[in-house]
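Here is one chain, start to finish.
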Amino acid sequence: MATFNSSRDSILLESGTNEVEFIEFYLGSISYGINVSKVQRVLARSSVDITGVAQAPCGTIGMIHIQDKPIMLMDLKMSLGIPFDPEAIHPERQLVLVTTFNKQTTAFLIDGISKIHRTSWENFEPLNDKVTSEGAGGYSTGTVTFEDNIIVILDLERLMLSLLPASHGNVGVLESTEARPERETVRILYAEDSKMVRGITQDILNRSGYVQVDAFENGEDAYNFLLKRIREKDFDGEGPYDLVLTDIEMPKMDGLTLCRRVKTEACSNLPPKVVVYSSLINKEMALKCISVGADAQLAKPDVSEIVSLIDSLCLEAPVGANF
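Its structure:
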């Protein structure tokens, strides 16, 4: 059994240096990567007992138990829709990648692991035509290249949301959302690389009355737009925004770096409130958020709590907030 310790990554992220460590693994002949912070441990497939389950999402192999806790095991190639030859698979060589994100622990069957890389978010590129793996493109945040080897960075959150749409809870939230007129004056800068999550979240904010939302797909674009508004004095009041809502994992500039730069550089005299909304939020990550100046953090997929949290930070008399 191998357990991954994210302490080195913690040092990088808590200082907001825009660096990340990710683990490179492979499915067939293609290299993929995910943030080390999501990886709990790696096991040999032969070391776990698998119990079948009924009516499971596409790609589910069954359930395994780690420390008496049941965990869903999914064949990642099958879930991503990557063609493969079952006869070419060697189960004795396969590994189980145990991950934790979105408050859930899920295991994925992979073909092997290469190494851990450290790099800057600036080096990540949008998915390009050189990547030939079918199916995985829709669940990638982009690629990064090391020594001419293209590594596809997977968006496991989007994959799980597509397989288990009810887990995000957005349908019930939209139906119960009630607009309040005092929210209309609050100006929000929003950075989120997932188009799906960005759309869901912005829809909820708009329906609740938070209609002044400028949304961007990464921290760098959001930060540059903020600087542009400050330079051109394109705003009324004491600052361009009342609140910044940001994911952590984003190409070009991550959310912790965005938070630090907003608080200490762009708006140091009168910084806006900053809420970090990420699948990586846990006790350790909450401390990192505090270290870069974040006012609050919220774990995905608690989308129902976003409006109440913003109310508590931006309105003089918040309703229904409990923090």
